[in-house]
């Protein structure tokens, strides 16, 4: 009997001890589990973002779209322009209801590729830089990371060629239900703006204008989103602290891991923002291939919250992807060669640089034009100034933003040659001011100047 | 004995605490994190709308469209036409850029709706009655038994603005008077661009709290709205026009969503439907 009492007392004691220990363990688990709290916060954040995101987010196929189109007249390629029908959209709507049947590599020779460039039987469309088949239209060709930047439209609606300027690889894409009849019709009627040559530079073929060529000058009423708009979009509304660094720039920080540096206010405001998000090693693992890198980068563009109406994919190097506004087929450069948004993925961080300029209201064209020199002349003058031919990666005609003196918020887009060399975009006149010897010296050591 | 009682009390209290903490761990984070915020937002927003008593048209498209920014040069187009209006007594208001006119001889408007519209069409298409009359199309949702509203049409689409409107007043089965404003010929300002889909426009209105509970979307249509006047030109932008009916008051209001950006435009007009 005595033993029985002792045994039940022992059980009671053990049970109580167990209950106390369990409650301590559970309580400690709750208090030390950040995820429990951060998950709640993250979920509500994403939900908030989703709401704002739905407002003006473009589909991937609107951002990754061909921006130039070329047709032939008397066996010479010309840049095509149609003020009424957007030829790039015609191409996209031509493949809207299509299905990709097959993608087959047909050639890998630079010589046959360059012959195809001069073949008048094809209409050519180019993306600003190479994209992957995963981002081709709305086909969602998952896992296809083969890159291309040029489309060749034949007389058939059942196939097209997709080519990679840099590697000379040519793919034959079999299609079902594609229809390029409208595109061909409009391309025939389009105005032929300047005869061109495709010249091989460091990053594929650039479009060279044979003769001096006229481009329209367009004007826009602009506005800028405020610092607080970007702070609230990128960092949220609580727990954000700010400090001013030595250069006088204000940086807003959230949890040490996320920060946003805003431009100086006043006259020296260049409207350039830098958003940095630290995530140890995570991004390197998250971005195993080109397609996911491009898609991830686009999601950061959405997150920034700029007006995406004219934003297109523009340039991609190793870990960097850049986007800019395209007006009438030409890219817009800001300040001295900045682009609207660029993302850089590092091993432990993502850096998103962006400019808050918004081309809000287009002003009717008033007949002003700008005549540009033949492209070869621009190249020659840069080479004369000591720039190395093999350092020149791309040459494009883009718009330089100039303030109009008649109105505070009015800007003019002046057509100008822009050159990508040593990994940087600058206008031709800006490159002419640079000390190219220094660039060459640094380039040969394999590091950038900045 | 007291010692035993205290031990029992401790056991029960701590068991209860354990149960509470256990439930707490299992509960909220799991359910929160399972909310699908990346995909299916379209479906969940539709569900939320339904819960808020918002009825959507069954054929609401999720397809994008294409459209332009348009511009019209501002000018006194109507005053130049006054002399050719030989069949009406017309007066021109420069401040409003509008002509008000009454027919010199009686124009009878009889029969069913179709017959009435045919008569009005014949009347407005005659340049001696209405300047630029052929450029206007009937808009039922803005009309009633006595007021027939026509909006200015262009090769790019219809323009819904007070500066591009023809209103014919019918009284006692006769055309009593009309008022017309005219924007001039419109031209694209830039190349063709893609717009958001009608569903996207409705979703923007809903997330911007521009859609009241217990309302019904009657119609969604792409048309041009006035954005601003710059350098002597009126700039028009494509908008999704959304006719929303309040289920209680039966009032219908017209809301406009910027078809490029999804922003809801500030101006809207409210009127009662009579037919």
TrEMBL record, chain A:
Highest taxon, organism lineage: Bacteria
CDD domains documented for this protein: YycH_N (cd15787)
The protein's name: YycH protein
Species this chain originates from: Lactobacillus pasteurii DSM 23907 = CRBIP 24.76
From TrEMBL, chain B:
InterPro entries cross-referenced by the UniProt entry: YycI-like
Limits of the Regulatory protein YycH-like domain: 34-260
Transmembrane segments: 6-23
Record's GO cellular component terms: membrane
Key words of the record: Membrane, Transmembrane, Transmembrane helix
Highest taxon of source: Bacteria
Pfam family of the protein (one): YycI
Official protein name in the record: YycH protein
